[in-house]
Amino acid sequence: MRTPSASPTHLRGSFITLRDAVPSDMESYQRWMSTGEWREFDAPWEREPGGGDDGEAERIFRRNFLEELSDPRHRLIVGLHDSRPIGWVNRYEDKRFPSSWSVGIDICEDEHLNRGYGTEALRLWVDYLFLNSDIHRIAFATYSFNSRVVRIGQKLKFALEGRDREILQWQDRWLDRLHFSMLRAEWESEQRRDERSGKCS
Fold first, then answer.
1. Residue 6 predicted with pLDDT over 50
2. β-strands 16-19, 85-93: how paired?
3. Which CATH number covers residue 101?
4. Position 198 pLDDT exceeds 80
5. ∠ CA 180-73-5, rounded to 5°
6. Tally of domains in the chain
7. What backbone phi and psi angles, to 5 degrees, belong to 180?
8. How far apart are CA 111 and CA 59, in angstroms?
9. pTM reported for the whole predicted model
10. DSSP per-residue letters across 69-105
11. Is 75 inside a domain boundary?
12. What pLDDT, in 10s, does the model give residues 80-103?
């Protein structure tokens, strides 16, 4: 178990916040493991039917959200300004490529889809990771049926690096896997452009 940071992480946007998890978030997390439209798009072929039992979800939540508090964080809860949790963001690494992190996002409450919350959450997350590390590259991969995440990448000026064509067949459809990335220099350039135009990061 990693040593918790002395200072809690709380990032506020116009619509949502990114924050450290609290024990009361576990109830929502357990529900998300078995319900929600998000499960149809986040590698559903890897998911157990029904989402597993509450005990397993509790162990995963405690390990990933309450115990592993590195700086910068590996994951944060996406919440509304009244603190209600609606999903999470995460990062993970491949030891072969220490200068690159991969990121992910899930908005798990159906009523909060298609409102721009995912775009704002990923923007806050990417800003936080670049500002609090010397990481060179942030990337993510998604599948061609996940048009929401593709649009988020495009809005945030991630570069489309490539496409693995028809790499997976799911429910009688061939899916492409798309690879997006942003380099630190590209992020810094966007920050300067926002400063010149008077936009807040």
1. no
2. unpaired
3. 3.40.630.30
4. no
5. 165
6. 1
7. -120, 150
8. 27
9. 0.88
10. --SS-SEEEEEETT--EEEEEEEEE-TT-TTEEEEEE
11. yes
12. 999 999 999 999 999 999 999 999
